[in-house]
Specification:
The protein contains 11 helices and 12 strands. It is α/β, with parallel strands linked by helices. It has 2 domains: 208 residues, 3-Layer(aba) Sandwich (Rossmann fold), CATH 3.40.50.1820; 50 residues, no CATH class. The strands form 3 sheets. An 8-stranded mixed β-sheet has the order 1-2-4-3-5-6-11-12, with helices on both faces. Strand 3, helix 1 and strand 4 form a beta-alpha-beta unit. The protein is globular. The model has no long low-confidence stretch (mean pLDDT 96).
Length: 280
């Protein structure tokens, strides 16, 4: 398993595949590199695709002090440390949800480190109604005996926001978001203590999380926004405000998707590949 040490010695897992301009994929709050399996397969013939598991997720080491470590500045610093380890001055970033916020934070912390940014279903204001929905399951172990049952659970929970998704896609999704305990049972692929840290952070905010300052710091970075048409995290109004503030911003809306698009949808895949071809 390829790992490197963060500044505080935490062991962080990453994948490095393909050749060409570097693209760093950063997953959402409780997710891991497997979310980008399909996208990486499509890109690695033309790009060097990096996938980092943020601390506490996937193959990366769990925190000793969750409240201090599971924070955007720390995780963005870890991503910049990966660039340093690989001798890269800058990369294009594809970030889903929190991963997109990390991309913005990287650009603010080290100007020039992010040459282009794809924000998958996250914007300058994060609707906390969606976060409250996520808190309903964050940190809770799946109480199912096998991955067949996990597939049923996920498909049912997401049926309204993701209508028409084939069962095979949900089965692949279950394998991405859960680990196998070795006996065929799904278990959390992240540190359950993320829930406590996230809940503490939400207690200090209102109806939205304001990311306008980070967005302003990335004013010179080309941005593509991918929005799920049914998203409860990135609203249509927020995307419209971003486009008004940045007329050069590119955007694509994926029908029949909530938070967040898988990025294997034809609309999303085509937009991302075209964007990276021009800016990575």
């Amino acid at each position: 398993m390829p790992v490197f040490l963060a500044a505080d010695g935490r062991r962080l897992h990453h994948l490095d595949e393909g050749a060409g301009p570097a693209v760093l994929c950063l997953a959402g709050l409780s997710r891991n590199h497997r979310d980008f399996d399909v996208l990486a397969a499509a890109l690695k013939g033309r790009f060097r695709v990096l996938r980092l598991d943020s601390r506490g997720r996937g193959g990366s080491e769990r925190a000793e002090d969750p409240a201090a470590e599971y924070q955007v500045p720390v995780e963005a610093g870890d991503a910049l440390a990966l660039l340093d380890r690989l001798g890269l001055e800058s990369v294009a970033v594809v970030g889903t949800s929190r991963g997109g916020i990390l991309g913005l934070a990287m650009a603010a912390a080290r100007p020039g480190s992010v040459k282009a940014l794809v924000l998958n279903d996250v914007g300058v204001e994060v609707a906390t109604a969606g976060l409250r929905r996520i808190m309903g399951y964050l940190g809770r172990a799946p109480e199912v005996p096998d991955f067949e049952a996990a597939t049923d659970l996920i498909a049912e929970a997401n049926a309204a926001a993701f209508p028409g998704v084939p069962r095979a896609r949900w089965a692949a999704h279950a394998r991405a978001i859960f680990d196998d305990d070795g006996a065929g049972r799904p278990v959390l692929s992240y540190d359950a203590r993320l829930a406590e840290v996230t809940a503490a952070g939400m207690a200090e905010i209102g109806e939205t999380i304001d990311l306008w300052p980070l967005f302003a710091a990335a004013a010179d970075v080309p941005v593509l926004v991918v929005r799920g048409a049914n998203s409860d995290i990135l609203t249509a109004e927020t995307l419209a405000a971003m486009r008004a503030a940045r007329p050069d911003l590119e955007a694509v809306e994926v029908p029949d998707r909530g938070h967040a698009p898988f990025l294997d949808e034809p609309e999303a895949a085509a937009a991302i590949e075209s964007f990276l071809e021009r800016w990575a």
